[in-house]
Please model this.
Amino acid sequence: MFPFLDLHFIKIPMYGLCIVVGGIIGCSLVCLICKKLKKNILDFIIVAAVGIGFSFVFAKLFYIFVTYPINLIPKLIYKMFTDPKNFPMSGGFVFYGGVFGGALGYFVGTKIAKCKFTDFNETLTFLVAFVHSFGRLGCFCAGCCYGIHYNGPFAIRYVNPISPVEPNVGIFPVQLLESALLMIFAITMFILIMKNKKVTIFYYTIYYSIVRFCLEYLRGDVERGKLWIFSTSQWISIFLFVASIICIVVLGIVKRNRKLPANQPADGGQTNALKN
Model:
């Protein structure tokens, strides 16, 4: 376990460091994307800053809701905003909370920057997956989101862990697998964007909902929460997958109708042909 980078005069949490490093590299690549797509980089900075802020707040809120009893939640939320330094379990976050918070922040950010909601769709698709991949490396270092007991190839063992993971027991490296799958997706999206291929954030939500649903069976941490036969994250994955498909279909219908002439019905004139 390597939860902190000890520089003697300061200890830097590896989870936060991985996120920052991923963000710096990702934003550098985003500059290339913005240049390729002729997007305003300053508008992107505004949108990204607001989105990241909302993402962190909602990730913490989701963590509180899935971790603590309902009667303690109002008090903990109040403490989170009024006394963040002494907030218990301050390192805990739930990624899906960050997704929904980031989506809301993205919307607010576009309003502040006075740009279209779709202006940074391609950029967001790449950047979220790229930074998320680095975040899972941080989880691996911190010992959170750990896998099931496993003694096969690539099994890992945490020594003197500060997280709830059992020490000196073979664990499946589910964080590294998820990080690799996310990085493959991010690189694929970057290549497609640079080749002027149209991508959408729904590619990411569909891809990740499937990946996360499957990887939950390889997770061994008990903090995830469970409802009936699925974990909390699996239920959210199902909702995210269905919602993404619905959005793609609805947007496709809207786009198709916009391309039709004003006097032409959406069924391509079949109705009138039947009447004749």
